[in-house]
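Whiteboard transcription, Tuesday session. T.W. wrote the structure tokens on the left side:
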């Protein structure tokens, strides 16, 4: 008997071919296996354009409530973490890579930060990290009532927050931590200071 796959003569009573390892009953048609991952490519549709919301009509004067600053007709991007009608507070992030970035609203930081489907951020900040200690999407930041916060996005090496005159805090993934000005946020081998 001859192996139908490689053509080697099989000894009497052989169950498998000693040359290619095929079963003696194998044929070229039975050896052809279906692709185990026929749909492993996912096509992601582009996100719809982010709409803008104007909180106060431009031609209307609004008297400020007592104790509150006057409302200005500012355009606020949807998905921002601020109160509609008010621009988010500005913060300056000074990175260990030598870059200084002024941010408002929300964003992601990492080697190649990318939002999950359905998420919207004001800014994506890529970090140059040759040692690749920083995750692709390492942490999220935003604002709540004028205060800056960070949230570790289940990074590989974690995030440590060092507030002025306080003990360092290892950030629990998925939890927001308030960051005071002059605090240092450590992302593995890289860090940034919030001013």
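and on the right, the sequence the group agreed on:
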């Amino acid at each position: 008997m001859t192996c139908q796959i490689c053509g080697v003569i099989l000894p009497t009573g052989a169950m498998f071919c000693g040359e290619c390892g095929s079963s003696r009953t194998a044929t070229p048609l039975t050896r052809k296996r279906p692709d185990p991952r026929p749909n492993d490519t996912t096509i992601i549709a582009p996100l719809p354009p982010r709409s803008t919301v104007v909180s106060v009509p431009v031609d209307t004067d609004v008297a400020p409530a007592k104790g509150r600053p006057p409302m200005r007709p500012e355009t606020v991007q949807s998905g921002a973490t601020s109160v509609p009608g008010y621009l988010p507070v500005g913060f300056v992030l000074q990175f260990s890579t030598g870059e200084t970035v002024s941010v408002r609203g929300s964003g992601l930081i990492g080697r190649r930060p990318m939002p999950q489907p359905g998420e919207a951020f004001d800014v994506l900040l890529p970090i140059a990290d040759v040692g690749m200690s920083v995750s692709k999407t390492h942490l999220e930041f935003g604002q709540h009532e004028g205060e800056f916060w960070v949230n570790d996005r289940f990074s590989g090496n974690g995030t440590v927050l060092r507030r002025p005159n306080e003990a360092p805090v290892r950030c629990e993934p998925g939890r927001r931590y308030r960051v005071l000005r002059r605090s240092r946020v450590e992302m593995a081998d890289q860090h940034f200071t919030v001013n």
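Someone added at the bottom: Helices lie at 28-31.
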